[in-house]
Amino acid sequence: DTGVSQDPRHKITKRGQNVTFRCDPISEHNRLYWYRQTLGQGPEFLTYFQNEAQLEKSRLLSDRFSAERPKGSFSTLEIQRTEQGDSAMYLCASSLQAPWWFYNEQFFGPGTRLTVL
Amino acid sequence: ILNVEQSPQSLHVQEGDSTNFTCSFPSSNFYALHWYRWETAKSPEALFVMTLNGDEKKKGRISATLNTKEGYSYLYIKGSQPEDSATYLCAFTGFQKLVFGTGTRLLVSP
Question: Strands (DSSP E) along A40-111, which ranges?
Answer without folding.
Answer: 44-50, 53-57, 65-68, 75-79, 88-95, 107-108
